[in-house]
Amino acid sequence: MKLENLLSIKPLLLTSVLAMSVFGSSFQALAGHHKNSVYELKSKQSLLTFFSIKSGSIGEVHEFKSLNGHIDKEGLATITIDLTSVETGIEIRNERMKSMLFNTNEFTTAQVQTEVSLDALKALKVGESFHRHVPVTLNLHGQSQKLIAHSDVVKIADNKIVIYSTKPAVVDASQFGLVDGIAALQKIAGLPSIATSVPVTFKLTFELPSK
Predict the structure, then answer these.
(1) C-beta neighbour count of 64 within 10 angstroms
(2) 174: pLDDT strictly greater than 60
(3) What is the pLDDT of residues 95-132, one digit of tens each?
(4) Alpha-carbon distance 27 to 52, whole Å?
(5) How many CB atoms are located within 10 Å of the residue 31 CB?
């Protein structure tokens, strides 16, 4: 079967009103079982990491500890990232990222959305996988931008799929109004530089809810 027939995904652009409602809401209000969902994200079996490069050559890996997501009955896939759950391995750096970079007092979450073909997911057999590179829409810090995600989709059980990145998606901080925050972090840490292009990787596990 041709790759194009397995999964059809296209970006969903949010209106400014929806974006404001998402960023202004609390993560707790978005968490839990979604009444219109077909697949639920298994947060403890999922991972979202990003890489920072400082002083020109020093790389560090960070992650978000709290994710929520689902694919609904209309095929709309949504991943909501709790920005307050950022984990860098250093507590003071966690707090600085939340306050100086992500401004979590105003923007508690980020969100990725795309449309998924449910028929294509049902067509997969256990153990089958395929590769995709697809456009998605990232809403972060009050800005909405398209990104390309390279990933493999694997059906690991009759009721469970895993989607994991095969290439990092690169987030350009300048497209999301984050450059000033990076400059502030650089200054307070006394660093000569912090890269403003950030590679992001992911492993997302979705499961059909129990009936």
Answers:
(1) 20
(2) yes
(3) 999 999 999 999 999 999 877 778 888 899 999 988 88
(4) 25
(5) 15
- Residue 94 backbone dihedrals phi, psi, to 5 degrees: -55, -50
Residue with tokens 């931008």: 145
Identify any residues that bridge with 204 across adjacent strands, giving them in sequence order: 163
Return the structure tokens found at 209: 């809810």
**For 48-62, what is each residue's pLDDT tens digit?**
999 999 998 899 999
Q: Would you state the pLDDT for residue 148?
A: 87
Q: Which residues of 106-135 are buried (b: 16+ CB within 10 A; e: fewer)?
A: ebbbbbbbbbbebebbeebeeeeebebebe
Q: How many CA atoms lie within 13 A of 180 on its CB side?
A: 6
d(CA 30, CA 5): 32
Q: What integer pLDDT is reported at residue 200 of this predicted model?
A: 94
- Residue type (1 letter), 194: I
Measured CA to CA, the distance from residue 202 to residue 64 in angstroms comes to: 10
End-to-end alpha carbon distance in the chain: 31
- Only one residue has tokens 């650089």, namely 186
CA-wise closest residue to 50 among 144, 191, 182? 182
Contacts of 74 (CB under 8 A, 6+ apart): 36, 115
